[in-house]
Specification:
- By secondary structure, the protein is of the alpha/beta class.
- The chain has 2 domains: 64 residues, 2,3-Dihydroxybiphenyl 1,2-Dioxygenase, domain 1 (Roll); 59 residues, 2,3-Dihydroxybiphenyl 1,2-Dioxygenase, domain 1.
- It has a 4-stranded mixed beta sheet with strand order 1-4-3-2, covered by helices on one side.
- Strand 7 and strand 8 form a beta hairpin.
- The protein is elongated.
- The two termini are 22 Å apart.
């Protein structure tokens, strides 16, 4: 049986600002932007407050999405999520794209010794780091091929 990770909730303080960052700066696809609560009071029966909103975004090529929102997502302090990781086949190209989109991203860092420096010396050990506007921390790792 396959067990797939499909959604990670990212805690943010401002849904519109976060949506702009993830969609416009990082290039994530906006799967949906849904308002769930209304003034009928029906959402209260299942714990959804008036004005609840869920935005789902997916990185290009990923099987896992992120969800940001208010009123219908688990409450966590904005910026408290650390260690989210994206994987790309070309870290130099990915970093250049982030810089071009206005993301404050670290220089490429090599962490550890590469157990398989072929086909590329950055595979497995090459990383860059950035945070979203709330301080949720992301890394991007290069893996150009898998054994």
């Amino acid at each position: 049986m396959n067990w797939t990770l499909e959604v990670v909730v990212v805690p943010v303080s401002d849904v519109d600002r976060a949506k702009e960052f993830y969609a416009d700066r990082l290039g994530f696809h906006v799967d949906h932007d849904t308002y769930l609560g209304d003034d009928s009071g029906l959402g209260e029966e299942i714990g959804i407050a008036e004005g609840a909103r869920i935005v789902q975004l997916t990185p290009h090529g990923s099987g896992c999405s992120i969800v940001i929102g208010r009123g219908a997502v688990p409450e966590m302090p904005p910026g408290s999520l650390k260690g989210l990781q994206l994987v790309v086949p070309d870290l130099e190209k990915a970093r250049a794209e982030l810089v071009e989109r206005g993301v404050a991203v670290s220089e490429i860092q090599v962490l550890g010794q590469n157990p398989r420096p072929v086909p590329h010396p950055l595979d497995n050990v090459g990383f860059v780091f950035f945070t979203d506007p709330d301080g949720n921390a992301w890394s991007v790792q290069q893996i150009s091929s898998r054994p």
